[in-house]
Write a structure and sequence with these properties.
alpha+beta, about 160 residues, 5 helices, single chain, globular, 6 strands
Length: about 160
C-alpha cells in the first residue's frame, strides 16, 4: 500500500491529505466554505474519465488562479492536457478554460496572491496542516526568489469557458 505520492525532488503529499480528500469533497459538494478550496473536475489525460479533487482557487482583481500546493500532481498533468475543467462548490458550477502561467507569472501570483493569504490565520493553518512549509522561501521574500517555487507549484489562470 503506497502511503505517499512522489513529486519532484522527493517531495511528498502527506498521506492524510489523500485520506481527507473524500471528506473535503463531500463538504464542498454541500457548499461548506473552506477558504479558497473549491472542487476541480478535469478529464483524465489517459483514461478520459472525469476526476474531481479539492484545489485552491485564488481570486484578485477579477482574475482567478488554481494553485498546485503539492506540485505537478495528477490534476495538474490532466489540466495541462485538457485545458478545460469544471470548478464548483455546492450548487455553483462553472465550466472554465485553463492556461498554465509562465514561471515569471507564476512567481508573481505566488508572491502577490498566495503568500499573503498564507500569512493570515486560514493560510497559516493550511500551511501547518500540510506538515511542512509550503514554500522553500520566506513568505515575505522578494518576487525573484519565488521563481524557484514556480516549478514546484504550477499556477493556472482560469476564465469562463465560451
Amino acid at each position: 500500500m503506497a502511503i505517499t505520492v512522489n513529486l519532484a525532488k522527493g517531495e511528498r503529499v502527506p498521506v492524510w491529505i489523500s485520506a481527507m480528500n473524500p471528506v473535503m469533497k463531500g463538504m464542498l459538494r454541500l457548499g461548506v466554505p473552506m477558504g479558497p478550496t473549491i472542487l476541480l473536475t478535469v478529464r483524465g489525460r489517459k483514461s478520459g474519465r472525469s476526476y474531481t479533487t479539492p484545489v485552491g482557487m485564488f481570486e484578485r482583481d477579477g482574475r482567478r488562479w488554481l494553485f498546485a500546493q503539492f506540485g505537478p500532481v495528477a490534476w495538474v498533468r490532466n489540466l495541462r492536457v485538457s485545458g478545460q475543467a469544471i470548478v464548483s462548490r455546492g450548487r455553483w458550477h462553472e465550466e472554465v478554460a485553463a492556461v498554465e502561467l509562465s514561471a515569471e507569472a507564476t512567481a508573481s501570483v505566488l508572491h502577490d496572491v498566495v503568500a499573503p493569504w498564507l500569512k493570515g490565520p486560514m493560510g497559516a493553518m493550511a500551511g501547518t496542516m500540510a506538515g511542512r512549509p509550503i514554500f522553500n522561501v520566506a513568505l515575505d521574500a522578494p518576487v525573484e526568489l519565488f521563481l524557484a517555487e514556480a516549478a514546484r507549484h504550477p499556477i493556472f489562470e482560469i476564465t469562463p469557458k465560451g
